[in-house]
Design a protein that fits this description.
By secondary structure, the chain is mainly alpha-helical. The protein folds into two domains: 1-55 and 232-264, no CATH class; 57-227, MetI-like (MetI-like fold, Orthogonal Bundle), CATH 1.10.3720. The chain is built from eleven helices and no strands. It has helices at residues 2-29, 47-50, 58-89, 95-107, 110-124, 130-154, 158-166, 171-200, 203-208, 215-222, 229-263. The protein starts with a helix and ends with a helix.
């Protein structure tokens, strides 16, 4: 009994440590006095954090990825939210087929999706670059948004909107005053997920980017000679920012729950 009681926590702890090892490595080697390569420890320095753009093209590729992530997230979130509302609130022919089409980008390997999008862009005669990446990212991020927002829409109580209508609120006023605030947490979660998927993507981007450089492509090319310490700095900073967002969100939700409990 004692062995069974400790088995899951011990195995879970080792798995958690295993997942953190690459992150710890990146963080530690962001302080490495790397020189030309960053494959072995040469000494501690703060210069990489004081000058994160010291490596050629690292900040340029980061800015490119941020721009693509923001624009594709806006498109995917707007379109995905509207589609999720339509799927939950309305009945129409071929609805089941629509569900299948939404799941397909999630189930399709990225190599297949990236190659098929590349074929479409080449058939249309488009030059590969910023906008082809944005379109490609919007296509595969939109499915994640639809699934996330759809779950939130399904959980809404329709009686709230009916009560607003009984109080002579127009459909537009009911949506912006009742529906949208209730959907907002789900929309924000879907947008954050979409941005993370876009910023992190390499395979689809590599197929449809041409000569346009993004941060994952920069890392891939630089890995042959040891990822620059400045790239480790940016990766560590992104992880810390994401961690802070999660912590702030959890603390805010906990405080809101406590206030609601006190008010009731």
């Amino acid at each position: 009994m004692k062995l069974g009681r400790w088995f899951v926590p011990v195995v879970g702890g080792f798995a958690f440590i295993y997942l953190l090892v690459p992150i710890i490595y990146i963080f530690v080697f962001s302080f490495n006095d790397a020189g030309r390569t960053n494959l072995e420890w040469r000494g501690f320095t703060l210069q990489n954090w004081l000058n994160p753009c010291g490596a050629p093209a690292v900040c340029e590729s980061l800015v490119n990825s941020l721009k693509i992530g923001v624009v594709s997230t806006l498109f995917a979130t707007a379109l995905g939210t509207l589609i999720a509302l339509g799927l939950v609130r309305y009945s129409f022919r071929f609805r089941k087929m629509t569900d299948v089409l939404i799941i397909l980008p999630l189930a399709t390997p990225e190599v297949v999706l990236g190659a098929s999008l590349l074929a479409q862009f080449l058939n249309l005669g488009w030059d590969l670059g910023y906008w082809t990446i944005v379109i490609a990212h919007t296509v595969f991020c939109m499915s994640f948004v639809i699934v996330t927002v759809r779950a939130r829409v399904s959980s809404l109580d329709p009686r709230l909107e009916e009560a607003a209508a009984d109080l002579y609120a127009s459909p537009k006023a009911a949506f912006w005053k009742i529906t949208f605030p209730l959907l907002l947490p789900g929309i924000v979660a879907a947008a954050l997920l979409s941005f993370a998927m876009s910023f992190d993507d390499f395979i689809i981007t590599n197929f449809n980017s041409g000569n346009y450089q993004t941060f994952p492509k920069f890392i891939y090319v630089a890995a042959t000679r040891g990822i620059p310490a400045q790239a480790n700095v940016i990766g560590s900073a992104m992880f810390i920012i994401a961690l802070l967002i999660v912590v702030i969100g959890q603390v805010t939700a906990y405080r809101r729950k406590k206030r609601m409990e006190l008010a009731s």
